């Protein structure tokens, strides 16, 4: 299949992206827009999903948020929810204007924090064909309820300091996204090294660092409250053993959405990215996306071509 390096503008900076075109068929193609979670970049297994979607007959636009990966933006490692949502809006606008993509058949795909972003983005962007939200961050308050307060205190102190540094336009204090117990990190686990083996392909370098003040914004970020405004089909893929993002909040999100569907898997947060669980989930997601971007649109076209009685 064909993969093209492209860029698009978001609030004055360039977001870097890969555009995958299907190996057969003719333009304009239906398109799935993909982006990652907290502090992650497109090299962290998003190419595997995009390849599967392209093989199923769908174009795929895979982008990095500003301040990360190959995208522009200073300081590096900056996580601001409003900026990332603006990047999603810019990606949708780019896809709708692209000559090889069908503006009427655009879907969103997000994982982890990106899985929450696609719900908010879909609540604001009309005319989307479908949304896939994988092991999503849907309710910061619910996640907080399961946190260990004393373990959070050192991170909270750094986050508050970093927020003041942000207001003063100073360089951010960076912390790890994923770390071992005792490390200053957004998520800590004794399985940290194994988790990163699922997420980070061999030979890929991942900074694993973000601005600490992101914690203050994530605590009150609640994509679940936008679910009732998502009018297109929504597939939520939930890991029943996810300890990073609440499975209960993800299930509630799917139940609240007018056209929500759920697929549940006996796995944790990082199991989605490789191995057996990846194979299961990507097959389910391809089936869902093909149904709503290819089969249903073809049925509508066929119905429109029927002679009037």
Automatic annotation (TrEMBL):
One of its GO terms (molecular function) is carboxylic ester hydrolase activity. Gene3D superfamilies: 1.10.10.800, alpha/beta hydrolase. Keywords: Hydrolase. The keyword Repeat does not apply. It comes from the Bacteria. The keyword Coiled coil does not apply. Residues 30-259 form the Serine aminopeptidase S33 domain. InterPro entries: AB_hydrolase_fold, FrsA_esterase, Hydrolase_4. This is Alpha/beta hydrolase.
